[in-house]
Amino acid sequence: MLVLCFALAGMVACSSIEPWVKPYERDRLADPIMALDGDPVSSAYIQHVFEAREGARGGEGAAGGGCGCN
Amino acid sequence: MGFARRSVFTIVALLGYAASVNAGVLPDDRADVLYHLYDGGGVEIDGPSILVRKQVGKSTSLVGNYYVDMISSASIDVVTTASPYAEERKQWSLGMDYLRGNTTMRVNYTSSVESDFDAKTYSFSVSQDMFGDLTTLTLSYAKGDDIVGRSDDPSFERENERQHYGVGLTQIFTRNLIATVNFETITDEGFLNNPYRSVRYADPGSAKGYSYEPELYPRTRTSNAVGLRAKYYLPYRAALEGEYRYFIDTWDIESHTASLTYTHPWGDFVFTGQYRYHDQTGAHFYRDLFSRSEATNFRGRDKELSPLTSHVFKIGASYEFINDTEGWRFIKKGTANFSYSFLSVDYHDFHDVSTNALLGEEPLYLLEADIIQIYFSFWY
Questions:
Q1: Is the dihedral of CA B189, B191, B197, B198 positive or negative?
Q2: Residue A31 to residue B73: CA distance in whole angstroms
Q3: Which among A8, A15, A66 has the least Cβ separation from residue B112?
Q4: What pTM, to 2 d.p., does this model score?
Q5: Residues in contact with B181: Cβ distance below 8 Å, sequence separation at least 6, in sequence order
């Protein structure tokens, strides 16, 4: 965790790095088909189904809630 | 205050100094109305999920979600040890995003209520955009307080506390490639099993050769998961996404999950196809059949904690019926969406005792389920 703190401090200090993908080159990334989570209710629902049917959980970047779904 | 919490707060303070003159962006204002249906293994669960998000002022976005599961269950566990039942779970959540410079702070409260289970979850996260918005670092913390009851015993009440710690990094690599990595640690402490589920043990005195006794789980569980996702814009207008997650916990469950998703637009339609694979080992206290009563200190027969392999095939279609270049009154864009998923789960050490086969001759259980989602999304 101390290493992570120093790494973050370094990243903060380097926040003036020039972006190598210029804003005018991000048209494809802005396309709705490239959205990482364009359907939040759908992805939250299917994540809930998998957590109820499997023993694994987490690591998908979205907050989960609790339920008695077992 | 624990070491993990001190670390999270230290990192949040560091991120607080990283604000730059570039402005971050709040999530789009939107409303989604979804109907979900899960049907398989003797269980049918359907209901709505409604989400509304609206920006208030220049820096704040509020979001609310209402979700219902209407459950009709005659699952393999229910038909072999109990009676089919019906119940309803209602969940609602409220959240707020606050944007300051390149930093977004998010708080959320979720409440889930059913007749025998009450769950409250409080979460907080901080996201920081860096390197000209090519990189986003997110730290998150959530705490859950659950109360487990029994519908047949009003005096039965047990508690369970959950804590989630997450670190996520999203990186734009090229004009065509974006990727994320997420680490998440979850700890549970308290009453962690289903109060209705039983384990079976060999019992020569029983007509079937086995009898049942209540489950007994450890009172703690700590899990770690790391997930990688990458999405690539193909040479023609389409996208390919790959995802992998590794999971391991103190119950000795280890899993690998991978999926591949292809997205293809065609006129006002967008089609998606996905295959997902999941394979896991079983919990150390899981047995399909224990050698005798109270054979081990901890005992479980939850098939979700058994060694299994699952496959999911999904197809989806989205139709943009309100075009974002024309709009309709205050609505900028509207889509109608449908998806169908087929879930197949092979259990490697969970036998189907509902067949009334002789002990030792029961077939391994196979679960197949249909999952349907129909939803409308509006942006305004």
A1: positive
A2: 41
A3: A66
A4: 0.88
A5: B168, B169, B226, B227, B228, B229
Q: Which domain holds residue A27?
A: 19-54
What is the tens place of the pLDDT at every residue in B288-303?
999 999 999 999 999 9
Query: Does residue A62 fall inside a structural domain?
Result: no
* Rounded Cα distance, B138 and B11, in Å: 10
B342 CB contacts (<8 Å, ≥6 apart)?
A: B312, B313, B314, B368, B369, B370, B371
pLDDT range class, residue A6, cuts 50, 70, 90: low
Q: Is residue A38 part of a domain?
A: yes
Task: Please report residues of B whose CB lies closer than 8 A to that of A70.
Answer: 194, 197, 302, 304
Is residue B141 within 8 A of residue A62, CB to CB? The reply is no
Is A37 a member of any domain?
yes
- Contact in structure between B366 and B344 (CB atoms under 8 Å): yes
- Please give the Cα distance from B210 to B293 (Å, whole number): 10
Whether B15 sits inside 8 A of A12 (CB atoms) is yes
CB nearest to A5's CB, from B11, B186, B308: B11
Question: Are A31 and B233 in contact (CB < 8 Å)?
Answer: yes
Chain-centroid distance of CA B114 in Å reads 18
Which residue from A40, A29, A16 is spatially nearest to B337, judged by alpha carbons?
A40
Model-level ipTM above the cut of 0.95:
no
Domain extents in chain B: 3-20+45-221+280-379
Residue A28 lies in a domain: yes
Closest Cα of chain A to B154: distance in Å? 16
Pairing of the two strands B239-249 and B254-266: antiparallel
| Cα–Cα dist B112/B49, whole Å | 13
What is the spatial distance between Cα B104 and Cα B127, in angstroms, rounded to a whole number? Answer: 5
For B296-336, what is each residue's pLDDT tens digit? Answer: 999 999 999 999 999 999 999 999 999 878 888 889 999 99
